[in-house]
Amino acid sequence: MSMHSPAETLSEKEAIAEAEAALAGIRTMREEIGRVIFGQEEVVENAIVAIMSGGHALLVGVPGLAKTKLVETLGTVLGISAGRIQFTPDLMPSDILGSEVLEQSEDGKRSFRFVKGPIFTQLLMADEINRASPRTQSALLQAMQEYHVTFGGLRHDLPQPFHVLATQNPLEQEGTYPLPEAQLDRFLLQIDVDYPDIEAERRILLETTGTRNETASPVFTGEKLVGLQNLVRRMPVPESVVNAILDLVRSARPGTGHASTDAHVAWGPGPRASQALMLCCRARALYQGRFAPSIDDVKALATPVLQHRMALTFAARAEGVGIRQVIADLVNAMDRD
Questions:
Q1: Is the pLDDT of residue 83 over 70?
Q2: Which of 214, 234, 254 is the last residue in one of the domains?
């Protein structure tokens, strides 16, 4: 089996030692998160996969499913600073990015000083991002892409690492501004947050309604997290997995000969989806204790990577066809090929 390896490589002994140290940290991190977040294993896994891959994630779910608690816990466990912005229709770009204030020195000289906004943190929760106006959304998403803010002709770099976990309520659409497709593409993953199962909800009832709540402890630091992200990018990928990624993403584009896609998809994912899937497969493998990704990783991540990068035709929406159903058809076709 041939392997695709990044250009920058370590010796086999160094690579194994670094990977084993990372695996030990990941195991401890999972234990710490499990003390605070009950159930939702797939949501937690995908959120951490997005961060390990160096990207941002969009969490979609109804209120009360511990999305805010998850972001706070991740900030603690990863040892990075965390902040939260509640998005509202009257929120302005300066409320996120910062602003310049005019100051006067003792000798009467006036000058502008940049006051940093809440975006200058390492893990930002953008709560209900679709409630802000398109202008405010664009300000945040530009910073997510370029990792800096420009004021008065001066560049202000965001802290590293920098990640955004944004939330979006799928039910309440009145008074909201849906994110344009080009801006949705900034998110590495769209993570659907569903209701917990009955056993997880039982634990929530018993362990969060008393006088004492569990808290997580730091496991990583910002510097160690950057090292983990670099390790993910250096992981070898089997040629079979590379081919599976290419085949899946290309089959999601209309006009490539896949019947379900041609019938239901107006436009499909671009090369950024392939890049996202490649990184996330590596991160998921490492999160689960493996040194190389498999085709099962491609299948598991197909929906969170692709669903916000595709659009259905009007006829498909009228027929009640969902984007997840189309992706499931593409994944099932992988087994038949």
A1: yes
A2: 234
